[in-house]
Amino acid sequence: MDVGCEYHGYLSDLTRTWPPCGRFSAAQEELYSLILETNKECIKLCKPGTSIREIHHHSVKMLISGFQELGIIGKGKSIQYNYLNPTSIGHSLGMDIHDSTSLTSDKPLEPGVVITIEPGIYIPSVPILNEKAPDRFRGIGIRIEDEVLITENGHEVLTASVPKEIPHLTTLMNMGGGGSTTESHEVRAACN
What we know:
manganese, metal ion binding, four-stranded antiparallel sheet, globular, X-Pro_dipept-like, 5 helices
């Protein structure tokens, strides 16, 4: 779910991913945990003086290492990373979704700036360009995006109240199962 809203001329941008069956498969949980860890570690880097490019490079190192451990990309095959995650770790946010073209990814962040932190992965259902991800990961896409305000002493996560931890998502997805429809039975049958 990639959503946003507008409030007094300012925009937001938020992404959450959850399992369609209300619980994570083992493969989904492995990937989700890696993306979540990367999200949290990159948020820790958000402070005055750091650039989006520095945060991006940190995320790429974390994700390549994690993807190699999971067997999604081979050692020395970091070029495949770009096919699995073709986006940057984040962008500026304000009166437009990608707010300012003058805020380059090399410019040091300053208090009052709002950026997104959004690591992710998209593994195609079929292999592309000699990419050899294990079958259990095929067709999985995950992105976790937060809005981060740079403060004088660090940062504030503006989207902190939106669940992203696995137990919170699982609980949220399994709440209120009282009403049922034909559609929900079909989804549940596909998940079993």
